[in-house]
Design the sequence.
């Protein structure tokens, strides 16, 4: 007796499939095919990592947050301040410290905030992020405030590979390597029993309580890990662009990553890839072609996707694939 | 048949080769401005100023052609501007960069200009130390210190004020403005009794609480800096609504608060406001009269150029100067040399670029708002000539590098 | 610093927040729909008022009424055609839709009217100062306070004393029960949504004098509206009223005494409050 296709797929999702090499090959291919677009490419990679971190907490743990840029910003400012004030500008160790700082922040705020849910939780995450933004402005002596900290310089990676100011070649490969490493870790996490319990929490909270699963603890842990990953994304962002300012903590960035994840499809890791690429590419080409009207195009796209493509682009792809199978 | 096609191909190839060489006579300028988002109307003003220059000075670039490649810098976070600049340099292969409304945009882009050796003409961003960030940067707009310091001096000397309260939006241009005014005012004998940060640049806060606090200190003069735009109108309304003029407190500020495109919506409450700035649309000189007339004809009788428009205008003049001087082939060293010491008769009066700092040197006009035929008009009550950026002159704070 | 001026200033600001946010609270409480485009309706209302006054010479009051009606109609139309399709969708799809809608509104206004800030010319009787005897205060602020109180009274009466009000309250508390009692919940949704958005529009027009009006309005103030709704408790008009006033006054006081710390305190206090009382002032405990 063979299992229905959907069940089979869900049960074997943790196995590596051949097509999963595609995104990485495509990213490497882009490096060689589009050498003039690597600054943009780096932004896409950073955004993918950020969206992945959000997916862990939103797609897998079911926690809706409008304040994830708080952790992105925490990682960003950690690296920037280490470089500017403590002279510590070795990139890889900077990443580690940023992850730690952001992760601790996530742990603390998650422990406090995750007793609430719904609109209340949403507002609390938003307020926490806004609070950090205001604090960064208040201590603008350290953070550079609105104008930011220009001229951050970072040592070559592993002492060998120097960041390339003009063409962003090394930045792109660095971001890609970091993304790869984080993705592997995340994939393992998500398919582990911890990850599965998160899905359980998201799908059926009552049952999880009933079986005695440590729900709160799992949620807070997921939140902390997600925060650490977001911090890494922020750190890479600063190292690649050698500049930071308050916008890394802003609502625009937090809302942007949320849109990207929903657009791509949440709860399935690859939604982050698809969403980031689709959204940023659309935004980029539209704003070049119609510098004043591109926002209209984006808005209409989002409305259409929300109405007709439930669960984002990947959801749409799934629906199409199912329809194809059923004919 | 075959042979003809072959010849056609050869001729076409030859033509392309010649055209490729000839296109060195088209100068490509990358323009980075916000065309969407909070800065959209400023981007529009600068862009229009640039186009006005080309319209009124059609022969300025001859026999070379100039091509403007526009990119939207979107929000003032610097990241978008940096990506845009990178693409302008790497893909579009522009010869020069221009624009930059917000300081973060210019700050983020400076290292790219240095690395690629592309002259960068700043047409707004006012943080004083920006010009120190790269030897490729020249600025035709202003530094916060130009107007701030001048207003401080004028408040003490011309307006005979002894005490002042400063209200400023809490971000670097605001703090710059505070420092500048304070320096100018206190050097001329006055004393600043309170400095009130009035919220961030993102939202237009309700100014009532801050103005209430200022009113209670009873200063002679209340110097207000807010970002050009929505804030300014709110400032005027709050000043009137709290009856501060009746309480004997004069409202002064840099011309950012009397931006010409916002002026008429301020209404009668604004009469008596005194500002110091390098430009307002009512300046009486030949070049400005010509600009204003042409502007109204092009964009409508209710429209007006403002200080941002004139910065776009003068920026194009500077670029034209570079293009002519270098014979259409732009190289970084030659361009910077041409810009340093450049002089021009702008609609804002005589301007020049200081060879030492690559920043602008220009007049600061003291003006008072009066009502004339039911419209608000700036009446000139004083001039300080050839003002430099005092921050760099005095090596104050961050300008000391 | 005298207490009366501070109180009045804060109350006036709070009233604007109230007028705009009350619609959001009721629709979110009733329909369970996350409508991030609410600020967009406020903006459209503001623009309707400005344009009606400028191009048709309407007086301020009439323009406000026009804005209310026009936006209410547009909202009703959008609700029937688009919003209704997403009632069963996930929260996140609703977020995506409403953000997309805001973008369309913002871009639409920028392209048709322009990116500049729009100013409202108040009629002479609303300008200047009024002498209250013990204090002279800004007339417009006093007018806002009066309007807010009247609106609150009208809404309270509407909810407590009319049949429709009772139906709305019932549906907010327990939709299934209300449906099984014969309440036409679908029609209620449209009506409430239209009313709430119309009020937002009026709030946009009223607030233009203090908060400004430009295409960025919906995104800039979204956080404030959501805070007021969360603190007030979903679906509770009285909750929104007191939350908005509290926020307005607190904001004012903090800015006078600690202009440096400013908004930080508001966020900190909101966090503290919501942690202590997650359901808001008058919301029901989940």
Sequence:
């Amino acid at each position: 007796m063979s299992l229905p296709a959907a069940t089979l797929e869900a049960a074997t999702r943790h196995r590596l499939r051949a097509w999963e090499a595609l995104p990485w090959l495509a990213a490497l291919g882009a490096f060689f095919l589009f050498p003039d677009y690597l600054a943009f490419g780096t932004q896409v990679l950073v955004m993918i990592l950020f969206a992945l971190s959000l997916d862990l907490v939103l797609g897998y743990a079911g926690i809706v947050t409008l304040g994830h840029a708080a952790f992105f910003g925490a990682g960003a400012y950690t690296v920037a301040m280490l470089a500017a004030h403590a002279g510590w500008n070795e990139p890889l160790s900077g990443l580690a410290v940023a992850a730690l700082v952001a992760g601790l922040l996530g742990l603390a705020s998650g422990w406090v905030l995750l007793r609430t849910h719904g609109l209340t939780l949403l507002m609390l995450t938003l307020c926490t992020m806004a609070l950090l933004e205001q604090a960064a402005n208040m201590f603008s002596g350290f953070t550079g405030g609105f104008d930011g900290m220009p001229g951050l310089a970072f040592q070559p990676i592993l002492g060998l590979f120097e960041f390339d100011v003009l063409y962003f070649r090394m930045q792109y490969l660095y971001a890609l390597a970091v993304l790869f490493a984080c993705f592997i870790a995340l994939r393992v996490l998500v398919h582990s029993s911890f990850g599965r319990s998160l899905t359980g929490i998201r799908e059926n909270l009552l049952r999880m309580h009933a079986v005695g699963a440590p729900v709160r603890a799992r949620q807070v842990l997921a939140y902390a890990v997600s925060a650490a990953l977001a911090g890494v994304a922020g750190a890479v962002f600063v190292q690649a662009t050698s500049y930071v300012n308050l916008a890394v903590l802003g609502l625009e960035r937090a809302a942007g990553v949320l849109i990207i994840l929903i657009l791509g499809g949440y709860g399935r890791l690859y939604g982050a890839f698809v969403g980031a690429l689709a959204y940023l590419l659309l935004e980029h080409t539209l704003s070049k072609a119609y510098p004043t009207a591109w926002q209209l195009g984006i808005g209409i796209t989002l409305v259409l996707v929300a109405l007709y493509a439930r669960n984002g682009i990947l959801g749409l792809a799934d629906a199409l694939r199912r329809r194809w199978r059923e004919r | 048949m075959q042979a003809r096609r072959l010849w056609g191909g050869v001729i076409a190839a030859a033509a392309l080769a010649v055209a490729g060489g000839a296109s060195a006579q088209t100068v490509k300028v990358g323009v980075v401005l916000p065309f969407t988002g909070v800065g959209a109307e400023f981007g529009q003003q600068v862009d229009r100023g640039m186009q006005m220059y080309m319209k009124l000075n059609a022969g300025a670039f001859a026999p070379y052609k100039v091509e403007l490649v526009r990119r939207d810098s979107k929000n003032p976070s610097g990241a978008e501007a940096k990506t845009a600049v990178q693409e302008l340099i790497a893909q579009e292969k522009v010869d020069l960069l221009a624009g930059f409304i917000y300081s973060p945009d210019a700050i983020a882009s400076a290292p790219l200009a240095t690395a690629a050796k592309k002259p960068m003409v700043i047409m707004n961003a006012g943080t004083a130390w920006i010009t120190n960030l790269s030897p490729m940067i020249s600025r035709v707009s202003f530094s916060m210190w130009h107007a701030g310091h001048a207003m401080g001096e004028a408040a003490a000397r011309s307006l005979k004020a002894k005490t002042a309260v400063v209200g400023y939006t809490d971000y670097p241009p605001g703090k710059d403005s505070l420092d500048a005014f304070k320096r100018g005012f206190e050097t001329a004998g006055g004393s600043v009794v309170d400095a009130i940060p009035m919220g961030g640049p993102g939202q237009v806060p309700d100014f009532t609480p801050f103005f209430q606090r200022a009113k209670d200190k009873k200063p002679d003069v209340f110097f207000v800096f807010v970002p050009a735009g929505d804030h300014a109108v709110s400032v005027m309304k709050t000043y009137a609504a709290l009856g501060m003029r009746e309480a004997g407190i004069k409202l002064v500020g840099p011309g950012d608060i009397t931006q010409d495109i916002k002026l008429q919506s301020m209404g009668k409450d604004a009469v008596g406001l005194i500002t110091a700035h390098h430009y307002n649309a009512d300046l009486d000189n030949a070049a400005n009269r010509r600009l204003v007339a042409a502007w109204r004809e092009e964009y409508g009788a209710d429209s007006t150029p403002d200080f941002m428009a004139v910065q776009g205008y003068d920026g194009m003049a500077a670029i034209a100067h570079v293009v002519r001087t270098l014979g259409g082939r732009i190289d970084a060293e030659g361009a910077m040399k041409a810009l340093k010491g450049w002089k021009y008769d702008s609609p804002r009066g005589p301007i020049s670029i200081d060879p030492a700092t690559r920043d602008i040197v220009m007049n600061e006009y003291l003006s008072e708002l009066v009502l004339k035929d039911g419209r608000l008009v700036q009446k000139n009550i004083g001039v300080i000539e050839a003002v430099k950026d005092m921050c760099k002159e005095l090596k104050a704070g961050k300008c000391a590098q | 610093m005298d207490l009366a001026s501070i109180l009045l200033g804060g109350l006036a600001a709070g009233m604007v927040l109230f007028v705009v946010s009350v619609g959001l609270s009721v629709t979110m409480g009733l329909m369970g729909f996350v409508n991030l485009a609410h600020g967009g309706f406020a903006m459209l209302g503001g623009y309707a008022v400005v344009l009606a006054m400028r191009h048709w010479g309407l007086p301020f009051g009439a323009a406000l009424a026009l804005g209310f009606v026009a936006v209410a109609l547009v909202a009703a139309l959008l609700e029937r055609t688009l919003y209704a399709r997403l009632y069963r969708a996930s929260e996140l799809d609703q977020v995506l839709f409403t953000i997309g809608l805001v973008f369309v509104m913002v871009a639409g206004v920028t392209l048709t009217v322009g990116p500049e800030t729009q100013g409202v010319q108040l009629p002479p009787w609303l300008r200047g100062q009024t002498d209250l005897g013990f204090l002279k205060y800004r007339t417009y602020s006093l007018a806002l306070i009066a309007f807010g109180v009247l609106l609150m009274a009208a809404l309270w009466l509407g909810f407590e004393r009319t049949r429709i009000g009772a139906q709305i309250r019932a549906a907010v508390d327990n939709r299934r029960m209300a449906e099984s009692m014969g309440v036409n919940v679908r029609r209620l949704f449209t009506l409430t949504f239209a009313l709430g958005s119309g009020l937002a529009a009026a709030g946009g027009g009223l607030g233009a004098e203090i908060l400004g009006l430009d295409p960025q309005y919906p995104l800039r103030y979204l956080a404030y509206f959501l805070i007021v709704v969360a603190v007030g408790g979903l679906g509770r008009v009285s909750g929104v009223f007191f939350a908005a006033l509290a926020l307005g006054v607190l904001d004012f006081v903090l800015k006078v005494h600690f202009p440096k710390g400013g908004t930080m305190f508001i966020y900190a206090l909101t966090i503290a409050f919501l942690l202590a009382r997650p359901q808001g002032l008058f919301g029901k405990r989940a």
